[in-house]
Each structure stands twice: as C-alpha cells, then as structure tokens.
Amino acid sequence: MKEPAVGFDLDLTLFDTRPGIAATWAVVAEETGHAIDGEWIVGHLGPPIEDLIAPFVPAEEIDAAVKRYREIYRDHGVPASPLLPGVREAFAAIRANHGRILVITGKNAPDAERHLKHAGLEADEVIGWVWAEEKAEAMREHGVSVYIGDHPADVAAGRSAGAVAIGVLTGNNTAEELSAEVTMADLSGFPAWLEEHLTRTRLARLEEALARYDHLVVAFSGGADSAFLLAAAARFLGPDRVTAATAVSASLPAAELDRAREFAASLGVEHVTPATDEMARDGYRANAGDRCYFCKAELLDVLGPIAGEKDATVATGTNADDAVAGFRPGIRAAHERGAATPLKDAGLTKRQIRALSREWGLSTWDKPAAACLSSRVAYGIAITPARLARVERAEAALRAALAAKGVPVRDLRVRDLGESAKVEIDAELVAELSPEILSHVDGWARVTVDERGFRSGAMNELLPEPEKYR
C-alpha cells in the first residue's frame, strides 16, 4: 500500500501568523530603535525573513535583528497566531487515509514545531528554512504527492516536485496570482477533495494491478470488500477471467451463501462453493487469539488447488484499513500462502470501497460487517457446530423480534461468553433491547446488553495485550 504524503506550508496556510509576526517585530523595533513596519512585512510573507526586513534594518544589523526576532518569537508570535479554518479536519482526513503529514516551510523548524505543539497538532516531519525550489527538493526527497500553500512560490515548488499543487486564499495572493491546479478558500474543503482525489487515484491503481492477472479466484465471503473486489475484477479483467469462491462451512450463515450466489450471478462470473473444514484444525477449535489464522489457512489451502487448475491467482478482499488494524492473524495466514491483496495494495479504505460500490450500483455498498459466526464466541471457549448454530438462531430471532416492532437494525451480534451471552446492537438502538426482546435469545443462563453498542472486533478487547499484536 502506498500511503499518501501531504505537505503544508505553515504561515498563512496552517496558521494566521500575521498578528504574531507583527507583534514580535514591534518588540524588536522598540529594542533596536529601527522603524520596522510589521504590517508591511505580514503583507508580503513568503520570502526569507532576511529579505523582508532588509528595507528597514541596515545590512550589517540584519543578522542580529533576525536572531533577536527568533529568540522572542516563541513568547510573542506563537500564542498570537490562530489556527486557520479547516486545519484540524485536514490533518484528520490524512490520518484517516493512513497518510503522512509534512510541514515544509520557510519558517525556522523550531518555531514551526512550537506552532504545531501549541495547537495540539502532530506532523510526521517538519522541514524548515526552505523556500521556492528548496521546498520542491524536500518534497521529492520525502515523496510528497500533494502540497498546499498560500504563495505563488509554494504552487511553483509543488508543481516542480510533481505534486498536486493546491493554493489556499488565506494569504495575501489572489487565485489568479496563485495559478494552482486546485484553489480553495481555506482548508475546510480539503477533506472532501482529498477523499475524492485518493478514491480516483487508488481506483486507477487497482485497475492497473488487476490487468496484470490472467485469471483471478476471489475469496468471496459476500461482504462489501470481497464483493467490490469481485466486481472490479469482472469489470477490468472480464467475467470469463474471474472466479468467485465462497467457502461453505458451519461458520458461514446460510443466508450469506444465498446472497453470494445471487451477487456472483449478477456479475456473470463463475461461482464455486468448495467445502472447508476449519473444525478439523486444532487451532481453530481451541479458539485462542489466533483462531482466524487457522480459518484463513484452511480457506487458502482449499482454494489453492482450484486456482491451480485455472492457472489463476487467489485474491482476498483485505483493504487498507485492515492492514493497519494491528490484530489480523488471518491476514498473516493469507500472506504466507501467497494470496494477492489488490484492494490493500491500491490503498483503498473501507469508506472508499463503499463509496465506489454505491457509485457502481452494487447491492453490498452499505452491507453491515458480517464476520463469521466463530467471531461471536469468546476466546478460550471451544468452537463447535452446535455452538455456532445457537448463535445463528439467536441473532435471527433477535432481528425478527426487532423488525416486528419496526426497529431498523444494522449491526447486531450475540456474543457467546459460555454460560452467558452478551448482545451488541447499533449504539443508538441499545434502549430498544427490552427484557421482552431479549427473551428471544435462547440457550444461555443469562443474557446481558453491552451498553456501548456494537463494535467490530469487540472480542479482541478481552485479549491480553501481547496477543493483540501476534
């Protein structure tokens, strides 16, 4: 997965440093007796500080004035410089896409870091004392693909580095003067732009990657991710070069198999339903923290011969979010067996997969997460067909009871804790789980409700810390 690296200028892009800069120069002017026009300086921000004060300070005193300015800027400049609109949201959008944030600025690096710390923001790299082509060099060195600034020199540097150059109108320049590929009033519009930009970039990357395969066998669970991968493979390779493989076992709810058949048929791809026997694997039945490793190992070991007969590659629906989730023993098993992960490699997140699925008219675009039935059983409790069947019956009964009362349910889990069961439902619907509704959960001595609501991977919270990262 190639992560996005986004670079930002600092002055008038992240912070309105004009009040702070003017206030600091006012102190220097008072101390030195020079008539330094702070208002003029903040109206021309961008070039190096030495160039900006040259009209007001004798050449032989510039270095001393700049030194003094930097000594007191932390006290006078940083606190007086407000964060500009949309900055927090822009940083959050980059993090949500597993990206890196770089601040590449003409300001000295220590003061740039002080601004970020004062605002409670964190960047992966802060590169200071660079201007114009020096910024471009820093971008190339760090693989920056998008650069945002308020000055024409920022735009030129981004363009020189081969990055998408975005100009923001929070500085002293007009859109015409910036002449950027993309112009924004401020960073408030950046999250939506970034999401669309990355979605299109990553989709193109996926198309290019899929085109390299002669034939693809998609491990098709019926969920949103594998469904999108199957649809993308059918679209970019052609249906005759794609096979959907849905494993049939006690851990797959019967209704999921029917939906998988219908979806594959709608794409015109071959659909095979090989039987898997994860129950035969001691590690799976034992249900320790690495249970998913044995499940995925069984699946890939079964699909391997099917792919071999077609001279095909097996691919899973692992996405970019899965790759950074921390606890995914199933991903390790698939990697060991050489399974391809086109969605992850393209960088596509779950959110982007759902957005593209909706755009393509796929019925799975808003399908709730549907992990296998074994994921409902607390670690350390042996997995058996009877236990899985009990969970499936309980969830079906609960959904039916809630539907009868007109309660729309998206996510619902009955967690098997041994003698007791715990019900998770969409957080906003927890209050709907009355004693009458819960009476439909049969087979346990006690049934409780998780007041925090549904959380994907809730069982992992019960693992000892070292187990979570195996």
UniProtKB/TrEMBL annotation:
Gene3D superfamilies: HAD superfamily/HAD-like, HUPs, Putative phosphatase, domain 2
Matching InterPro entries: HAD-like_sf, HAD_2, HAD_sf, LarE, Ni-pincer_cofactor_biosynth, PGP-like_dom2, Rossmann-like_a/b/a_fold
GO molecular function, one term: sulfurtransferase activity
Source species, domain of life: Bacteria
UniProt-recorded name of the protein: NAD/GMP synthase domain-containing protein
